[in-house]
Structure formats: structure tokens, C-alpha cells
Amino acid sequence: MEVYLVRHTETVCEKGICYGQSDVGILEPYDAIFKSILNQLPQDAVLYSSPLQRCVILANHILENTKIDSIIEDSRLMEMNFGDWELKSWDAIPQEVLDPWMEDFVNVRVPNGESFVDLNDRILDFLENKLTKGIEKPVIIVAHAGVIRSFLCKINDLPLKDAFQNKVNYGDVIKIEIA
Question: How far apart are CA 109 and CA 106, in angstroms?
Fold first, then answer.
């Protein structure tokens, strides 16, 4: 099965701000980058999206400019929950709280948030329950860098601790094959 992992475009957040599940918008104008993304996607597919607006705006554009029938929003595709750190500057997070997470982001949970394992568990659940049920069309998933890195770790049999080896820029389209 062809799967197209699409990262949302750049957000309105300033550089250095932590925004996992915060529902932030995207920078305008985005027409040129949306057109570039569309040119890399099939015209007919099953379209999934994170319910956060930075993904839904792009998913709606894909829907309106292809033969796709609908968007299936799935909360398992949301970015990592950064809990107490949401919308804070990374520099404002106390080192004694940040350092343990930086040393083991895979297993250490953000205060009142998630670890990367938690995010990965959501993605594995999505894969097992959504992408293994005989879908005959290509699949497009509009999501976030952490979500896409999780998919790529699974597909490439890469340990989660090496997730950041997967470069995922704003507006990237990454095509993978799932058996």
C-alpha cells in the first residue's frame, strides 16, 4: 500500500516555542507550498488528518483540489502532548526538568504530557487498526513531525531513540510502502 506522509506547513509560532498539541495556525500565504504538496500526491486516495488546524487546513486544500471524497480526522495522529511545556519557550523550561527528557525523550514523559513511546503507541494502534484493513487506494496522512518520525521508525525498523535521524521539514511529502 502506498502511503504519503505529509507534514503541515510552517506555523505562526515563533522559533523556539514548544507547541505539540496546541492548536496553532499556519503562516500565510501558503498557496505556493500547498501547490507543491498537491503535485506530489495522488488524485484519488484515502485522506487522514490530525484534527489540529495546522493539518486540517492543508487536508481541506487537498480535499478541494483532488478527487478525494472526505477527510478522516483521527486524534491518534496529533503531535506529542508537551503538557506543561505547551506554548512555552524551550529556553524558559527549567533545566532540571528539561535535561532528563532531553537525555531520554523516548521514555521520559513531559510533565502532564507524553513521552515519545506514548506517541508511538498511538501510531502503532493507528497502523494496526486503520492501515491493515484492505484499503485499495493510496493513503495520504497529514500530520506532524513527531508522528511522521514514529511512522518512519516503524517502517525502517529504526529504534525510537534514533527518530531524529528522520529529517521532516515543513511541507515535506514522504512516500512509503506498507506491506
Answer: 8
Q: In whole angstroms, what is the distance from residue 28 CA to residue 14 CA? A: 14
Report pLDDT digits (tens) over 88-136. Answer: 999 999 999 999 999 999 999 999 999 999 999 999 999 999 887 678 8
- Please state the domain extents for the chain: 2-177
Neighbours of 79 (CB within 10 A): 21
Radius of gyration of the chain (CA): 16
In angstroms, what CA-CA distances link 39 with 28, 58, 65? 19, 13, 10
- Could you tell me if 172 and 6 are in contact, meaning their C-beta atoms sit under 8 angstroms apart? yes
CATH number, span 2-177: 3.40.50.1240
**Please, what is the angle between helix 145-155 and helix 116-130, to 10°?**
70
Q: Distance between CA atoms of 67 and 97, rounded to whole angstroms?
A: 48
Residue at grid coordinates 493539518: 55
The per-residue pLDDT for range 8-25, each reduced to its tens digit, is 999 999 999 999 999 999
Which residue in the block uniquely carries the three cell numbers 514548544? 18
According to DSSP, residue 110 is labeled P
**176 and 151 Cβ atoms separated by less than 8 Å:** yes
